[in-house]
Amino acid sequence: MSSTTEITEAHILPGGQDLDAAMAEGRHAHDVDRQHVFHSWSAQAQLKPMTVLAAQGSYLWDGEGTRLLDFSSQMVNTNIGHQHPKVVAAIAEQAAKLCTVAPAHINPARSEAARLIAERTPGDLNKVFFTNGGADAVEHAVRMARLHTGRYKVLSRYRSYHGGTDTAVNLTGDPRRWPNDYGNSGVVHFNGPFLYRSSFNAETEEQESQRALDYLDRLIQMEGPMSFAAIILESVPGTAGIMVPPPGYMAGVREICDRYGIVFIADEVMAGFGRTGKWFAIDHFDVVPDLMTFAKGVTSGYVPLGGVAINDAIAATFADRAYPGGLTYSGHPLATACAVATINAMEDEGMVTNAARIGEQVLGPGLRDLASRHPSVGEVRGLGVFWALDLVKNKQTREPLAPYGGSSPAMAAVLHECKAGGLLPFSNFNRIHAVPPCNVTDAEVAEGLRILDAALTVADGYTS
Ligand SMILES: Cc1ncc(COP(=O)(O)O)c(C=O)c1O
């Protein structure tokens, strides 16, 4: 089943639903949603949410039965595509065997998931504490760092996202923090490297890296080096714009952490599990963090799961002293069985290697070609299947096509054109992110690039 026409003729959606019946159910769901569902991050009365009836591989079908190429991977989490049969079967098998246990008990799915994760994380990140998702993974990583060091303050960069719960949103360096910020979280924000919109008047990656590190060091000295429990950094910031750190930066942060006894937390919630073409994005920089948070791709989002990978020193802190934190669903059997099947599917089908190849040979070059032909594309950046197009009104001034923290008619028109062409990208402010699953095919990427090409022509109409 590979095209809208075939689907419509057969009148059967992937998963076996009758198209007309699914559309009728979708219309009903839409009405009920508008009456009873309260959505994330939104003014409820202004929402026009899209209904999703079905999904398969790199595609999904909306409420009208239209097939869309999913270049968003939903929330950048369906790293193995939609409805992978082995993972769907593993969830069903685990459900038949044992749906739930209390977190204190051992269950084989959780043991195996922890083993597979520890096998892939760098250095001595040998223990895994499971959470329900990314934000609570971040909460617990910070709690562990505070208890381990006996210090309170945490450093986090502007242009970052770490989750929607209290500590996580206060760590976040984007406008979603502003209405949630009561100034009492002990978080100090700093500018990280981002050459295209440099805070350091840098002209080269080397300058950007060195100046960002010098500034971070000075900031720590002014704030009191002994007051910091942790620095948290997305290994490659995701929602904030996929800014791959320049050479030397992450190693420099590691050195600063070692110098001042600060715990280095790498947030791999979005960048981890193959997205950058390696199991973890931090692997691009040969750096071993002390704690690593993960979620999303660990189960391809099929069942909610997150966690913290913990190094030996921090694990030892809690060897004979109770860790004061826990969750009813820590290591839930359905979620961890899903993680085991997801990791095995990624391994068996070479998806991480595919993500790297797609980035180097297909998606990266294709997006750079679009940038060379469209005046609206200021910069293309990324790795693997993790790419951003920074859209601008003018290539010289680099004025964004939508303001920081806002939207614009130009961006709305571009996104409308993408959808009309059959493409669902991820978008944020003035950016379009091309973030398909790790097992996306060359032909699917070519299709996405063709649709983006047409949509960027619309964006070009807003440039001067
Ligand atoms: C880097 C990063 N950290 C944390 C989170 C929060 O994860 P969750 O939405 O699962 O709580 C996200 C979500 O997008 C993220 O991208």
Describe the 3D structure:
This protein has helices spanning 4-10, 19-36, 73-76, 85-97, 108-120, 134-149, 166-171, 205-223, 249-260, 312-317, 333-348, 351-373, 409-421, 442-460, and strands at residues 52-56, 59-62, 67-71, 125-131, 153-157, 187-190, 228-234, 263-267, 291-294, 306-311, 377-383, 386-391, 423-428, 431-434. α4 packs antiparallel against α11, α8 packs parallel to α9 and α13 (409-421) runs antiparallel to α14. The protein has 14 helices and 14 strands. β2 (59-62) and β3 form a beta hairpin. Residues 1-5 have low confidence and may be disordered. The longest helix has 23 residues, at 351-373. With 464 residues, it is an alpha/beta fold. The strands form two sheets. It has a seven-stranded mixed beta sheet. It has a seven-stranded mixed beta sheet with strand order 4-10-9-8-7-5-6, with helices on both faces. The radius of gyration is 22 Å and the shape is globular. Helices cover 40% and strands 16% of the residues. The site of pyridoxal-5'-phosphate (PLP) has 16 residues, from α6.
Write the layout of secondary structure elements.
Layout: H1 4-10, H2 19-36, E1 52-56, E2 59-62, E3 67-71, H3 73-76, H4 85-97, H5 108-120, E4 125-131, H6 134-149, E5 153-157, H7 166-171, E6 187-190, H8 205-223, E7 228-234, H9 249-260, E8 263-267, E9 291-294, E10 306-311, H10 312-317, H11 333-348, H12 351-373, E11 377-383, E12 386-391, H13 409-421, E13 423-428, E14 431-434, H14 442-460
Parallel strand pairs: 3-13, 5-6, 5-7, 7-8, 8-9
Antiparallel strand pairs: 1-2, 2-3, 4-10, 9-10, 11-12, 12-14, 13-14
Helix pairs in contact: 4-11, 5-11, 8-9, 12-14, 13-14
Bound molecules: pyridoxal-5'-phosphate.
Pyridoxal-5'-phosphate (PLP) binds at residues 75, 133-135, 138, 161-163, 234, 238-239, 267, 269-270, 295, 306.
